[in-house]
Specification:
alpha/beta; 20% helix; globular; 13 strands; Dihydrofolate Reductase, subunit A
Length: 196
């Protein structure tokens, strides 16, 4: 059965984009396509859930086909699908999901088979954690301080999420951390069990 891995690369001070929305300082050639680390991520990934902001960061959405590291079905959580669908092929398809994170994750799990679903994008990562949908949290720490920008976490609704470290790895200049989600957040004094 598919597991759900939520996370992405962030700065040491917790930001996934700088104050201008840029992510260039968070990239490292050692984690790019061609590395064993990236090859492992590609092998384990059967589907991806993206936030609309992460999807929109591509200057040309048609370039996802053949260029994005994960050539798998992609589910974009959005309120408004684009007027023109991006290019797709037999491996990489796009589904724009307008009825929330739980629906997107369920559809991605069905598409992924026994491989993992990656949830990528600050908002959808937080949504998946709040809803109790994430089995693991994966964060690659870039050795930079951005000072301000878009935080990955910093959400009071994540209070009570308990994680257990299951992996630490050096990847080039980055530190890759993996955690199992032991318990979901506390909502109204009780753990949230949505999606479990």
């Amino acid at each position: 059965m598919s597991t759900v891995h939520a996370g992405m690369t962030m700065s040491l001070d917790g930001f996934v984009a700088d104050r201008h929305g840029g992510t260039a300082r968070l990239s490292d050639p050692a984690t790019a396509n061609g590395s064993e680390y990236m090859a492992e991520l590609i092998r384990e990934t059967g589907a991806v859930v993206l936030g609309r902001r992460t999807f929109a960061m591509a200057e040309d959405p048609d370039r996802f086909v053949g260029n994005y590291e994960f050539q798998v079905p992609i589910f974009v959580v959005t309120h408004t699908p684009p007027d023109v669908l991006p290019k797709q092929d037999e491996r990489l398809t796009f589904t724009f999901v307008t009825d929330g994170i739980a629906s997107a994750v369920a559809r991605a799990k069905a598409a992924a088979g026994d491989r993992a679903v990656k949830v990528i994008g600050a908002s959808v990562v937080r949504q998946a954690l709040r809803a109790g949908l994430a089995d693991e949290v994966h964060v690659d720490i870039a050795p930079v301080l951005l000072g301000a920008g878009l935080p990955l976490f910093g959400d009071p609704e994540l209070d009570g999420v308990v994680l257990r470290r299951i992996g630490v790895r050096e990847v080039g200049t980055f530190t890759s951390l993996r955690f199992e989600v032991v318990s979901p957040p506390i909502v109204g004094g009780k753990p949230s069990l949505e999606g479990r």
